[in-house]
Amino acid sequence: MDNVRLLIWMTLIVMLWLTYQQWLIDYPSAGTPSPASATAAGDSPPPIAAEDVALPDIGQATAPEGTTAPALPAAQAGAQPARTVNVRTDVLDVTIDLRGGNLVRADVPGYPVDKSMPDVPVRLLDYADDSYWVINSGVRAVDGGDEPNHIAAFQSDAATYELAAGADELDVVLRWTGAGSLRATKTYRFTRGSYAVDMTLAVDNASASAWSGVPYAQIVRQHVPVERSFTSVDSYSFRGPVLYDGDEYAKLDVDDLVTEPVSQVVTGGWLAGIEHHFLAAAVPPPDESVTYQAAARGSRYVLTALSPAREIAPGGRAEYTLALFVGPKVQAQLADTAADLELTVDYGIFTVLAQPLFWLLRVVHDFVGNWGLSIVLVTLMIKLVFYKLTEASGRSMAKMRKVQPRLKALQERYKDDRQALSQAMMKLYKEEKINPAAGCLPILIQMPFFLAFYWVLIESVELRQAPFMLWIDDLSVRDPFFVLPLLMGAAMLLQTRLNPAPPDPVQARVMQIMPVAFTAMFAFFPAGLVLYWLTNTGLSILQQWRINKLIAATP
Questions:
Q1: In CA terms, which of 77, 180, 492, 499 is 20 to 30 Å from 420?
Q2: How buried is residue 352: exposed, middle or buried, by Cβ count under 10 Å (0-12/13-18/19+)?
Q3: Which letter does DSSP use for residue 502 in this model?
Q4: Hey, which CATH number is domain 33-346, 3.40.50.720, 1.20.58.760, 2.70.98.90, 1.10.10.10?
Q5: Each residue's pLDDT tens digit, 55-83
């Protein structure tokens, strides 16, 4: 087997794979979940329909036989909240609309939109029309009548709440009083340093008869499609609704939800609206049998979780708990909030490699405090793990280099007889104990790690805007001055000089062009990925140089 030819094919396969992944994003098939939207990028969103945020119909799935939910008016999407409560913690700045007690705005002060604008935080939840994204919650009455739903009028003791210095938790209590003898209290608990918010909705029945209600949570979002760009890392990430049923993680297509809504009853799971590096998720109690629903109208999607009906005896109380997560995809916090919530950090088919790589990166980062240096050290560790295998490959390449004059002589002798040339070359390889395919093993090993590293650097919010040194102030975007890609191209060129030249002039020419092609391709890749490949190439050069010296000194 010609190792150079296989190397070229592997390179082409990787480039085709990257192109195919982008093609799937831009032109998804009808059955492929994608972030596509009914509204093309750059078009104005359709008019907001009140039905998009209507009270959920509890229907027959959760209500006793023979009962239906009453039809009540919907909340007005995009309207400026008349009465709000502002909540500030060390990591969140949240607005709660007292109409329904819903989360209608959430800023993340620790994550600026851009490093050049440190005072402009990323905004996730928002009540504005063109970026509408809210989390509703409430209880629907099984038999109709008054209910503490997500358009009911709540009251608060204060208009602003702030996590006090030295305090670890902050409770925001909202109260609702029905027309009869029904009372409700909605409590949001914020925790220092955490993007997880615990919500408890308690309903008190002071009447003389039992009352039944269905608790629910609802995520409503105006879906804005990602503008596809080869130079933007945001282009490669999914934006849209996702659903986890306790076993399977599904990315839902907004177009499909318009005509084919999703409804399933599962125990556990969660639902979320996600985008690159950030999400808003709702996690019902994991031991409950929950009805999950997903639907869309135009480019607005609605995710609903209906819990089993609670019956409250006269003078009794029932509580409904809900875990919310609004913020960056910090994997440790995601894992603490709900089982497999870290799957929203979408590493795709390379998750099995990417998750351990990220774990190792994080452990190293805890010691060195620099993500760029962590990439260098982890690359060194990977190189050490496969040292013996790459050493055997390197020795084979060095022997190939040593017998180059003899190979050229064979080519001259059998230049008109390719079959005889092939037989003579195989005989020479056997005599010198050379495995021509051994040189391809490092590439075969590196490619999965390369692709896994690619998704780690693209998807891990921990590396977002993370500086390295000097001019590299963000490892998750391209090198602004293209220095790392140029150094990588030079290193690859040097590496080709250490290896034996291909006997075929066409292949030799291709090998000369490859460093240039890789430099152009890597110029727009995240700087962290280029740093990994540069480090790996540099270590390979040192290893091959040492092996060449040893083989050359061998008689």
A1: 499
A2: exposed
A3: P
A4: 2.70.98.90
A5: 666 554 343 333 333 333 344 455 667 79
Give the lowest-confidence range in 28-32, 207-211, 257-261.
Answer: 28-32
**DSSP character at residue 226:** P
Cα–Cα distance measured from residue 30 to residue 552, given in angstroms and rounded to the nearest whole number: 59
pLDDT at residue 274 is higher than 60: yes
Q: Rounded to an integer, what distance in angstroms lies between the CA atom of residue 150 and that of residue 189?
A: 18
| Phi, psi for residue 81 in degrees, rounded to 5 | -60, 135
**How far, in Å, CA of 535 to CA of 530, rounded?**
8
Take residue 376 and report the two structure tokens written for it. Answer: 């260098």
For residue range 137-192, what is the model confidence (pLDDT) as tens digits? 999 998 888 899 999 999 999 999 999 999 999 999 999 998 888 999 999 999 99
Question: Which contiguous run of DSSP H or E holds residue 410?
Answer: helix 404-413
Residue type at 406 in one-letter notation: R
More confident residue, 303 or 528: 303
Cβ–Cβ under 8 Å, residues 182 and 204: yes
- Number of CB atoms found within 10 A of residue 171's CB: 11
Provide the residue ranges of all domains of the chain, joining segments of one domain with +: 3-20+355-553, 33-346
Prediction pTM value? 0.78
